[in-house]
Amino acid sequence: MFKVVIDIAKSPHVVLDRDKAIQLLECIADKHGSTRDLEESMRYIENYEEFYNYLRRKFEDYLTPPKHPRDAILGRVIVHKLRLFKEDEREMVELLFDRRFNLDILENCLKQVINDEVVFEKQFF
After folding, report:
1. For residue 49, what are the domain limits?
2. Residue environment code for 47-57, b if the CB has 16+ CB neighbours within 10 A, otherwise e
3. Cα separations (Å) of 101 from 3, 9, 11, 52, 76?
4. Which helix (H) or strand (E) holds 107?
5. Could you write out the DSSP letters of every residue in 9-54?
6. d(C-alpha 112, C-alpha 106), whole Å
């Protein structure tokens, strides 16, 4: 069972290893269409080591991909921000999706990439 956490701002969070994250974003691009933020997010993940070192050097946790203003107005933004981190020498990615992104597309692509049941859990404070 794979858990997707929806935070208090209604943004879904997904934590995957680097290869699965790329597969997920490629699946979303196929189903939803490509946007600037999606392309930039894939570029960040594909060049993982360079951007991971950049984040550590700047003492930052998250990268915010540039978004086209038209996509933001129309609600077509997919990736709000992402975090690159290492867990036991594994390259991991946390994707924070825009709160207006269609959860059905996310669920279908996760099922396709992970081959497991997907559960959405709302986070309350």
Report:
1. 2-122
2. ebeebbeebee
3. 17, 13, 8, 26, 7
4. helix 103-114
5. TS-EEEEEEHHHHHHHHHHHHHHH---HHHHHHHHHHHTHHHHHHH
6. 10
In the chain, the number of structural domains is 1
SS3 56: helix
45's tokens? 């993940």
Burial of 114 per CB tally in 10 Å (0-12, 13-18, 19+) = middle
Express each pLDDT in 2-46 by its tens digit.
999 999 999 999 999 999 999 999 999 999 999 999 999 999 999
Sign of CA dihedral 59, 64, 65, 68: negative
58-96 pLDDT, tens digit each:
999 999 999 999 988 988 999 999 999 999 999 999 999
- Determine the Cα–Cα distance for residues 81 and 62; give it in Å rounded to an integer: 6
What's the gap between Cα 51 and its chain centre? Answer: 15
